[in-house]
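Re: the 311-residue chain
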Amino acid sequence: MWLAIAKYKFLLRARDVLILPPYKGSTLRGGFGISFRQICCVNKKVKTCSNCTLKEKCAYAYIFETSPSRQTNRLKNLSEIPRPFVIEPPLEDKTVYRQGETLGFNLILIGKAIDYFPYFVFTFKELGNIGIGKNRGGYELYQICSSDNKKIYDSRDETIRNINSEISFDDYLITNFSNADSFSLSFTTPTRIKFRNDLVVKPEFHILIRSLLHRLSALSYFHCGEELKVDYNLLISQAEEIRIKESSLRWVDWERYSSRQDTRMKLGGFIGKVTYTGEFSPFLHPLFFGQYTHVGKNTTFGLGRYEIVNM
């Protein structure tokens, strides 16, 4: 096991008309952050968590404004570390949800954040009363299911059931695909990977693996309490031997408004399918877990999502 990862399926039911952008990840993440801070913060006079004396014990500071602990021995040069959650918005362009219609999204929690799951439930429940979208439409947190569709929460009794929703690496991947010489990845949300300070338009495999290993190692160390036991230099060397066989990737530009920075931000990235050829068995673990952690930048609101579509 590389990482402890749990996946939850949230279902919201509109109380009012909801007017949302085509890509809903930033709206859900932004609304969650605002509601979460209102619920958790007892020191609202401080503008940022970095200046708060309570940050080491605060759920909001850990989940939403994660920073390295004073006791950490690694990656001290990072001002921030990866947040231990990912919100996967629905892959639909629908922008208007009428009263009674439902909106679904996935929540991925990593490592210690799994223990904070009730905070997410309560926060998204309260966000429904605050409202989201252009018109601040209200909704009901209708239902939450595990990754295998077991009911965890239902609005009728408002009880959170103790059901394991953790993801495990399935050995059938190795058994069934170890002899294949090519595999494809389908990037379903804009993916922003930087290599040598430039945004990547067409990801060579070694660039993808560098980014993925960097993210997975940080998540494992800071949120799971373990260092990944891999030979990074060897993996990068092996990754450089894998080539792009076919690509239908394209660049997509989109904007989001950041209330924290009071500005509109352009966040383009590549989406589509790319097929690689070469010996990929050393990369089964990172590729598998990367489907849940996502890869690249701005992953908390769903960017960098991909699926292994064939091998």
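The mean pLDDT is 89.
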